[in-house]
Amino acid sequence: MWMLALESSTEWCSAAVGDGRRWHVRDERAGSTHSERLLPMVRAVLAEAGLALRDLDGVAFGAGPGSFTGIRIGCGVAQGLALGAGLPLVAISTLETLAQEARRAHGWTRVLACLDARMREVYAGLYVATATAWRAETEAVAAKPDAVATLPAGDACFGAGSGFVAYAALAARLGLADTDPEVRPTARAVGELALPRLEAGEGVAAAAATPLYVRHRVALTTAERDAGLRI
Q: Where do runs of H (alpha helix) occur along 92-177?
């Protein structure tokens, strides 16, 4: 079963094609050029795999939380490709993807995934690995670091993501065993998480796939912009 996966929830952009054993990946820091870079990356990984869209069994995308613009671009591209090829879609949480990457990098099986959400907040969620997937111990939230510091993490938990760069004291307050703030969501991790869900029949029609925003503000007030806040 072959899957095309997209991830554009952060300043990084990536596309991957794989069947669970082999993965063809493009991954780069795109900044604000996701809309320009994503489709060429898709074409590149498909060509490297020797596949066309019609040869795939499904499409997956990183659904957020993350950059509003990046999430919309990833979802829109995934919907367009899936609709045109008649393929099912699978939406994967960006935070769960962070946990997957932390496990690949370090073998961690209990992960507090934490992304810088701007506006003096983070996106955070606590995940525990099962035999075949991840179980969310908490809902994904957009919250102040003080609120995240009350999550039931402890010294058997590890932290992953850019939230630990923006708020360096958060790891100590949570009592985490270790952190890796350089871990980031990737298309390969999206695909790895999506494949078993596609095999289980959890794919949906293109029109039914939706992003996971968590925080529904898409604009700042003038005072907030003047204070240097960013979304």
A: 94-106, 145-148, 163-166, 170-174
Whether the upstream peptide bond of residue 65 has omega within 30° of 0, thus cis, is yes
CB crowding 133-156: b at 16 or more within 10 Å, else e: ebeebeebbbbebeebbebebeee
- Give the model confidence (pLDDT) of 99-144 as tens digits: 999 999 999 999 999 999 998 999 999 999 998 789 999 999 999 9
CA angle 210, 216, 218 (to 5 degrees): 105
Domain ranges for the chain, please list them.
3-93+185-216, 95-180
The closest of 15, 12, 9 to 140, measured between CA atoms, is 9
* In this structure, CATH architecture of domain 3-93+185-216: 2-Layer Sandwich (3.30)
Report pLDDT digits (tens) over 71-99.
999 999 999 999 999 999 999 999 999 99
Distance of alpha carbon 12 from alpha carbon 8, whole angstroms: 6
Residue 169: pLDDT above 90?
yes
CATH architecture group of domain 95-180? 2-Layer Sandwich (3.30)
Among 134, 131, 68, 121, residue whose Cα is nearest residue 95: 134
- What pLDDT shows up at residue 230? 52
Whether the predicted pLDDT of 217 surpasses 60: no
- Rounded CA-CA distance 86/221 in Å is 42
